[in-house]
Amino acid sequence: QVQLVESGGGLVQPGGSLRLSCAASTSISSYVLMGWYRQAPGKEREFVAHITSAGSINYADSVKSRFTISRDSAKNTVYLQMNSLKPEDTAIYYCNVRKPKVTDWGQGTQVTVSS
After folding, report:
1. In sequence order, what are the beta bridge partners of 89?
2. Residue 46: pLDDT over 90
3. 28 or 89: whose pLDDT is higher?
């Protein structure tokens, strides 16, 4: 089982930016999907973005044009660049990787957008 460690969360003002990182303990080359989900207080966990091993990318409508997902296979790391942050982006952000019959999650990193 791969260990996923997220970092980069914190407190930021509306309109600000953060870059989240998800470092895997093993190679991510065998994973078909690598992505980010988030869970706000009192809400269900929701999809944010993912990138496939072929490089295809999808975003939730709520973050399109503001967030950018990328990966560095050499560093076994997936990133989420978040710009123009809004208070409604406040949540715990979780890294997720998938391959057939396997889904792994990180422990999450808190993002708080507030003035």
Report:
1. none
2. yes
3. 89
**99, two tokens:** 């391959």
At position 69, the amino acid (one-letter code) is I
Alpha-carbon distance of 32 to 15, in angstroms, equals 33
Q: How far apart are CA 76 and CA 27, in angstroms?
A: 6
Quote the CA–CA distance of 36 and 78 in Å, as a whole number. 9
User: Cα Rg for the chain, rounded, in angstroms?
Assistant: 13
CA distances from 75 to 4, 46, 78, 80 (A): 13, 26, 9, 15
Q: Using the structure block, give the residue that is written with the tokens 């944010």.
A: 48
Q: Which two tokens stand for residue 108?
A: 């999450």
pLDDT for residue 29: 83
* pLDDT band with cut points at 50, 70 and 90 for residue 1: confident
Residue carrying structure tokens 């560093």: 75
- Give every CB contact of residue 92 below 8 A, 6+ residues apart in sequence: 38, 39, 108, 109, 110, 111
